[in-house]
Batch of 4 targets.
Target 1
Amino acid sequence: MHLHILGICGTFMGGLALIARAAGHRVTGCDMGVYPPMSTQLEEQGIELIEGFGPEQLALKPDLFVIGNVVSRGNPLMEAILDAGLPYTSGPQWLGEFILQGQHVLAVGGTHGKTTTSSMLAWILHCAGKKPNFLIGGVAPGLEVSARFEAAHTLFVIEADEYDTAFFDKRSKFVHYRPRTAILNNLEYDHADIFPDLAAIETQFHHLLRTVPRTGLVITPHQDEALARVIGRGCWAEHTAINVAEGWHTQTCDAVSFDVLNGSQTLGTVAWSLTGAHNQHNALAAIVAAQHVGVVPATSIAALCTFSGVKRRMELRGTVRNITVYDDFAHHPTAIATTLAGLRAQIGKQRILAVLEPRSNTMKLGTMAARLPLALAEADLVFCYGQREGKQALGWDPAEVLASLGSRMQAHHEIDTLVHAIQRAAQPGDHIVIMSNGGFAGVHGRLLEALAASPA
């Protein structure tokens, strides 16, 4: 089958393209801004890429057009497909129908931690010799790629996103996956551009639970009010609550190690480079999910001791003049707060400089803006960047919203002035955390260069 993928350079659709190619299909695709690293990864697999969405691409005559959710009505190629009455489907629906059928799907959902937990779970299964297939929204160094598929292997780990499927299918992507093992890490309000309130997101999670078979397993935290409401609406599979003293829970040893317990029994100790209670929770969920497919906890614990994290999740980008620079995907007040709290537990009284680009649709709209001052409380200095014009322009004023931080906060609207301000403020021993769910105009590299050029 020849598939032509619209929006192929997105993380999900690019991963789907790699899976389709591995499954033996001919794959071509198009997008705006076809550039590395995704373009390189795709072209290395023999996937032809076309810049833009020109209607002349109908001449490729694929068997099926696969539509990413970046495509909307008015897109010239999409309009041509509709006018010609040609067959099309969404990425998640194609994946569910052509790849996930016959696979034991292990889905990881929730507002936070999906990529990290999915990567932990895939890494555990990999170390256990299970040879998992996977599609994840990030790259863990040991796994090397974000997507992998071999039809002979029947475990499939997938990051289960609650964002909508396509312009013609407003259900969450994850309703197409039909998992047998489902981790629901947490649930709070997000995606203000498509969901009116938390109740609307809870309904989508309820729809997900309706697809888990009786022989399946649903894993949730013990104390999450929104997920408790979702479970209360109906759960037909076995349900395991974690982070509860009489069941699965963790006990912190120090900033970078913790014990894994089931009731009063200590099963082992995870010692790694990751920090924060949130990563302990992610690890515990992955351990329980792996056990559901035959991996004993001792094997999972040993695997996690060699897990080195995920790119863009507190990823160390460099150290210059004893100033450490991290890249983190945090794009929600809860994620920001947990990231900074984890770093604070590790570094003690050393200074934290938080550099924030509120870039997600929810953050740009200002829906979460009032929560930012408290989320940034652990930072000694805060630098907030926001464009005044264009697609990424903020709908609120950082100087006003973050005014309660006083002299600890600076607002900037130009990358060069932002980098210069951080360079002037940074001191040896500082930890700079750059938080954005976008490329942030390459600020990480620019800042490292500026710090290296600073006088000693």
Target 2
Amino acid sequence: MLSELSDATRRVVGTKQLLRALDAGRIARAYVARDADPFLTKRVMDRCYDLNIPCHEVESMKALGQACGIDVAAAAAGVQRR
């Protein structure tokens, strides 16, 4: 599941940036970490539900950060539309 995020040339990392990109209609698929703060992930998941965009949960923030190619953990990330 994270392979799509790892292979993506255009991605958005971070809750704030992802929410902005969702509102702008630039996201094709979103990912949230199960061990992240529910206050943050629920906002992303609700927005994805409202916009009918697939949102997948991943095991950890660390795994999500690694899939994005960054050295820190990430609560949310998304693949941008082409």
Target 3
Amino acid sequence: MKEDLIKYVEDNVVVKKEMPKFKAGDTVTVHYKIIEGSKERIQQFQGVVIQLSGSGVTQTFTVRKISGNIGVERIIPLASPYIEKIDVNKKGVVRRARIFYIRELRGKKARIKEKRV
């Protein structure tokens, strides 16, 4: 009974947006809507996708970027109404689905090869 109710809400209530296909290792720009009081603005967060986790409505992805020599990670739900759009800047070549090893790498070692299209 409870599972049926959850599935009903996922199918009918939650608005599904068309998002581009991306995976771990890809560089993406997430246009995220930020509301401060009565003002609204769109902030761009560009970084490398470290992982995709979950499925369906609960799917999330983690984006990592280096900002002023400090690594910043953000976990973003794919079904979030605050996501304006997602741009895939580069397709990366990695052998894993979760590239947590990139957290320890700095400089040239942290580069990911780009897939030729």
Target 4
Amino acid sequence: MSNISTLVKSIQDIMRKDAGTYGDAQRLEQMAWLLFLKIFDDHEFGLESMNNHYQSPLPEQLRWRNWAANIAGITGERLLTFVENKLLPELRQLTGADPMVKLIRDTFADANNYMKNGTLLRQVINKILGINFNNSVDRHLFGDIYEKLLKDLQSAGNAGEFYTPRAVTQFIVEQVNPRLSETVFDPACGTGGFLICALEHLRQQAKEGDDERTIQNSIFGIEKKHLPYVLCITNLLLHQVEVPARIKHDNTLARPLTDWKINEQVDVIVTNPPFGGMEEDGIGSNFPADFRTRETADLFLVLLMRILKQQGRAGIVLPDGTLFGEGVKTRIKEALLTECNLHTIVRLPNGVFNPYTGIRTNLLFFTKGSPTTEVWYYEHQYPPGVKSYNKTNPIRIEEFAAVQAWWGNEADGFATRVENECAWRVSFETIKAGNFNLDLKNPHQVDSSVNTVEQLLPEYERLLAHIAETRAAVQTELQQALLATGEEK
């Protein structure tokens, strides 16, 4: 198909006519499970061509080819009745020993049919029939459109957390450099951006026939929210993962930290945990008393230190608030620098996650097992002529060429690294003396006496975040003091 972009837009236009799909989130969720069934059906055609004895985990009447694939098939009220009373309920209750059964059941656990007009639903299905996911051209083009759909979530309220810019995921994976036979984990995997990048990175190293099986068995992820979980599974199927059963629909933080056993530890973690959000009451109690907080990003940082193997490597996206925060944040950072070698912090400029947040972010890279002696900082610069990133002008992987050339090798202690206008280093002793504040400015940049709005806004946001953090810390201390007073009485 020559113009999949037009086709996807036409699907969205049909859905806009339906009273049930009144927002971007509903339209995307509806499209997600329909696309999953079509992609899985094409996936099964491929498996059948290689194995005459292949058995589908789906009952025949629920397979896409048997209810959707006929353009003149069921429509109107009859189609709505089938979808709402048979298809979705039975997919939610699917049974069987095939590992794909649980994956499909989880995929449809919270799936909804938002469309109220069966004729419009048939029109959407007929449009989807026009894509052949076994055709490499269609699959590649649709992968690009799929990424565009994920970006569109940025305008769908708080759903923007689902998408991390491709350039950021690719850079982190390339610098952490997962290798064949290593396990790769994303505990907040969203739609699978980091896992897809890791998959592609590992496939470049494959030399033998069994390597692909090893690679597929080495990718793990957990996602709390249903919609990004479905998109992640679909994304992995699009990238020829035969059974993405190692992706779980769960809240990683809901599991007590002490429950994670040594045999569950992983070699590599690459992730962008939700930041700015608060976990529900009780989640903090799964963590040691010194690290208890409701701040999601902070809890994930504690989790990473627990589930990395000795000499395991991590790359994580964190907001400025974690770097300069005090109280619990200070204790977490102290643990990070004493238990791990936090060798590099790449400071990203404002706007990387526009339009849904202008919060400045940082990429932290560390290895577990030896303490930090010094932290290298690298301040990523806007390319010439760019004052901020946005939806139409996102950060690009080519912009990381300078930091990649500077990076060096951890095995020799990054001996080739040199300070320059973008790079500087700070000793552990200096950081400790500053109460583990990691929000350190570039000493090679001279402050201008005249500041633009673009320059002042990040500092203003940093101050607001600091105020919020201080307020939360005071509230926590007051609550603890009140509880202690009550216990004494």
